[in-house]
Amino acid sequence: MDKNNEIAGIEKSMIQNQNKTVVKSMELLNLFIDHERLSLNEMVELTKMPKTSIHRMLGSLEGMGFLQRGEDGKFSLGLLFLQFGQLVSERLDIRQIALPEMSALRDKVEEAVNLIVRDGKEAIYIEKLDTPHPVRLYTKIGRRSPLYAGACSRIILSFLEEKEREQYLREVELVPIGRGTITDRNELRKTVADAREKGYTISYSELENDTVAVAAPIFDHMGRLHAGISIAGPQERFTEERLPALIAQLTAAAERISRALGWRRAKRS
Amino acid sequence: MDKNNEIAGIEKSMIQNQNKTVVKSMELLNLFIDHERLSLNEMVELTKMPKTSIHRMLGSLEGMGFLQRGEDGKFSLGLLFLQFGQLVSERLDIRQIALPEMSALRDKVEEAVNLIVRDGKEAIYIEKLDTPHPVRLYTKIGRRSPLYAGACSRIILSFLEEKEREQYLREVELVPIGRGTITDRNELRKTVADAREKGYTISYSELENDTVAVAAPIFDHMGRLHAGISIAGPQERFTEERLPALIAQLTAAAERISRALGWRRAKRS
DNA sequence: CCTTTCTGTTCCGAATTTCGGAACAATCGT
DNA sequence: ACGATTGTTCCGAAATTCGGAACAGAAAGG
Question: Is the pLDDT confidence value at B2 over 80?
Answer without folding.
Answer: no
